[in-house]
Structure formats: C-alpha cells, structure tokens
Amino acid sequence: MGGGLGATSLYNQEMNIEDFKNHLDQLKNNSELKYTIGDSVSITSIEKIEQKLKVIFPKQVKVFYSNYNGLLTKNPSLELYKIEELELKEKLIIFGKFNNLNEVAFDTNTLNSANQWNIINVKNKYCITLTMASFWSNKIPVWLKSKREIWDAEIY
Prior knowledge:
Layout: H1 9-15, H2 18-30, E1 34-37, H3 43-53, H4 59-67, E2 71-74, E3 78-80, E4 88-89, E5 92-98, E6 102-107, E7 118-121, E8 127-129, H5 132-146
C-alpha cells in the first residue's frame, strides 16, 4: 500500500528512518511491546495534506510520513496519528499522544534553528525536541524502553 518509497530513498539514507522500525522490532522481541505501524504515504498525498492545512511540512516530517503513516503501541502506550488525521489548531498540529493523555504537537509558529518546528507538549508547552529525527530516533525509543516521561522536564 502507499507510495513514496522511490521518492524517499535519499531521505532513508540521510535520516536513517529505516532504523526506526528495526528498533521497534528489537524492543518488541525483548519486552511486552506491541505495535502497529502505518504504510508509507506518497509525496503527492503529503502535498495534499499540506494544502489542506496551509503549511509546508519540514523535510523530516515528510521523511517520517513518507515511510510510516502513523504508529500505535501498547505497553507502553503511544499513538502517532495518520497524516490524514492531522489538524491545525491555533498554530499547533497535534500529531500524537503518549500514555493515552499527553498530546504532542508541531509548533508551526516559527521554524527553529534546525529549520524545523519545535515538538512540544500541548498542555504545558514544554519543548520536547527541535527535530522530528530526534523525536523518532531518541525520544520515542526512550519512552518505549524506559517509560521515561519525555514530554515533561526532568527533575534531578
């Protein structure tokens, strides 16, 4: 299903997006994690969503969705919404939820120093990370492996 694989081969090499699913598989084999991941989305479909939302997704957001359209995990709980489910509300695109209640969003107010949208906790506006690549390669694995609440500042 889905397209975009040919169009994303450069993205795959540049961002190591294929490591994301490999890491999920490793976690699944070593824990009680269960997951379902969506098929890739074509570049044309991504462009249609951009037009609908009146935004231009940063490159790394396009990379993620051109490889995986959504994610649902159990033990622990995480949901990344399918691209067609995204909505723009007050300059935020809510794209996921940790632990069934902690929503995360792209803050579309401005591009940050990495030329990306900050990824924030919707409730308290805590900046989780500056890039989508950091989100998929670091933040999600930390939550799935250690259940550390990455959506909030750590207190030491």
